[in-house]
Structure formats: C-alpha cells, structure tokens
Write a structure and sequence with these properties.
zinc ion binding; NAD(P)-bd_dom_sf; single chain; 17 strands; alpha/beta; Quinone Oxidoreductase, Chain A, domain 1; Rossmann fold; 9 helices
C-alpha cells in the first residue's frame, strides 16, 4: 500500500510503501476511493495541535470500499462503500458517552490523529464508527467532504439554534459552502464573511446560496440571529458578536483558533453568547447524511492524486481552493 506520512510537525508528508494491513477484531480494511483534506489536517501538519502519535498518516474524510472484515465486525459486507469520519473510537463508558455526548469522550481516538487515516491507498477503521454510504451521489470525491466539513458544519448549524433565521458565516471554505446550502434548504438567510478584499470567495458564497457576502470588517444588512466562525482566527469572534442581535449566539466551529483578543463587555452584554463545537457523534453523522440524501448538496471539489497531498495542503493554507480539496488514490 501507499501512504503519505507525517514524521514530525512542519515537515512535508513523505510517500511510504507498506504492507497491506490486516484488520483486527471489530475492524474493517478499506481500499480508499477518496479522502478530503480538512483544515484539521493542516493544523496537525503545521504543529498547531499536539501530536500524540508519530509517524501518522493524516486524513479523516474517507470514502472507501470494504476489502477485508475482522473477527466480530458486523454491519458491513465485502464490497460495501463506507465512510470513515474524524471520531474513530469512543470508550462508551465515561460520563459523556453514557450521556449521549461521545464527541466529548474522555478517551477518544481520532482518525488521522491517533490512528492512521486516509491519505493512503488503504486504511483500517473500527467498524462501529464507519458509516454506510448508500447515497444517490456516486462520485466518491464529492462524498468525502461530507464526512467532516459537512458533519462539523451540521453540528455547528444545530448549535446556532432553530430560531437562527438570519445566519452569518465567517470563513468561507469547505464547511461553509455546505452549511450555506443546508441552511438555505431549511429556509434560513445566510450572510457570508470572507477576508476583506476577496471578491472571488464572496462571489463563490453567493453562487452557493448566500444572500449577502462581504468582508469580515463589514456589517451585514441586518443584525444576525446567530453566526458561525469557521476561520481559525480569534479576532473574528468579537467581529461576529458585533454582527449579532441581542440574545444572539456565536458558534466557534473549529478545532483550533488563534487567541481571542480582549473585547469590551458591551459586545457580550444583552444576553449574547459564545459557544464552541467539538468533534461529532455518530448520531450527527446519520442525521446529516439522511439530510444530504433528501436535500442534495452541490459539493465543489478540487481533486489531487495521493502523491500531491503536500500541494493540496499548501493550496488550502493559502486559501486557493473553492470548496474542498480531495485526494484520490
């Protein structure tokens, strides 16, 4: 098998040749059809997240075909097309898991972080955390971004609240372009905030359904009911607070963000709130994939061969991608 491997933070990924692994008890071996490139992968490669395991193969938005089934693994057959998301394991016995919040598990294992991920030709995954992909969409590259950009976006959208009819989105990348379409399908109005002076991204936001698009230094036409911050820039939290109405909510949807600068209390006053979203649950995944099946989303992708994983990361880092980057082994 082939795998793009990170040996240390801030170093380029290196192509390795390995023996094809055998699945252990409760595991599946998948032949990878596509793996989207997430900003979390960039945070891992750039050393912005602590690295519990090295070397590691990144990638956690995986679409694959079941090639081998370990003992005790149930729910899948050889040849099934399945998805592998960020949450690769939860303990099932901590207070959070028992309360239905496996996304906050005390002993989780994340795909492409604690265990090798999908920047490879093959991957081993725990069957209980794989997702069946019986979808109308047949292009694996267009399904892959749903498995994190879509899922974390969906969880962020739910955190914004059902009464958030005017929604702002700060940072218009892979998650934002999917969440915008989902929000519009729910009857919400979306305002997109990009880097100042970025008409290309603002035009893209309008093309996927945003009613208004402007720079993060601008005010929307009307106060927002809620805002989601996907960009890893802490200074956008006060900007989002300025844009929401009294009682509004700001949702931080990323796993990593630069420090939030000090801001006057008056921005938070009048019962505004700031919350974060962490990881995902399998229930989130089932709910969102069902929604995507009944409300088909236009998934914009730029594909790269596996050997160009470093180029895909560089393009993501530089903001050169509309939608999502996807590796296709």
């Amino acid at each position: 098998m082939r795998a793009m491997t990170l040996s240390a933070a801030l170093l380029p990924l290196e192509m390795e040749r390995r023996n094809i692994p055998e699945p252990g008890p409760g595991e599946l071996r998948l032949r990878v059809l596509a793996c989207a490139v997430c900003r979390t992968d960039l945070h891992i490669v750039d050393g912005e997240l602590p690295l519990p395991v090295l070397p590691i193969v990144p990638g956690h938005e995986i679409v694959g075909v079941v090639e081998a089934i370990g003992s005790g693994a149930t729910g899948f057959r050889l040849g099934d097309r399945v998805g592998v998301p960020w949450l690769g394991h939860s303990c099932g016995c901590c207070a959070f898991c028992e309360d239905g919040h496996e996304n906050l598990c005390d002993a989780p294992r994340f795909t492409g972080y604690h265990r090798d991920g999908g920047f490879a030709s093959h991957v081993i995954a725990e069957a209980a955390f794989c997702l069946p992909l019986d979808m109308h969409e047949t292009d694996a590259a267009r399904i892959a971004p749903l498995l994190c950009a879509g899922l974390i976006g969906w969880r962020s959208l739910k955190a914004a609240g059902e009464d958030a009819h005017r929604l702002g989105i700060f940072g218009f990348g892979a998650a934002a372009h999917l969440v915008t379409q989902a929000a519009v399908a729910q009857g919400r109005t979306v305002c997109a905030f990009t880097r100042p002076g970025d008409p290309r991204t603002q035009d893209f936001a309008r093309r996927v359904g945003a009613a208004w698009a402007g720079g993060s230094n601008e005010r929307p036409p009307e106060p927002l009911d809620a805002a989601i911050v996907f960009a890893p820039a802490g200074e956008l939290v006060p900007a989002a607070l300025r844009a929401v109405r009294k009682g509004g909510r700001v949702v931080c949807g990323g796993i990593h963000m630069s420090d939030i600068p000090a801001f006057p209390y008056r921005l938070l006053w009048e019962e505004r709130s700031v919350v974060s979203v962490a990881n995902l649950t399998r229930a989130d995944a089932r709910e969102f994939l069902d929604f995507a099946q009944t409300h088909p989303l236009q998934v914009h992708v730029r594909t790269y061969p596996l050997s160009q994983a470093n180029e895909a990361l560089a393009d993501l880092r530089a903001g050169r991608i509309e939608g999502a980057a996807v590796l296709v082994p």
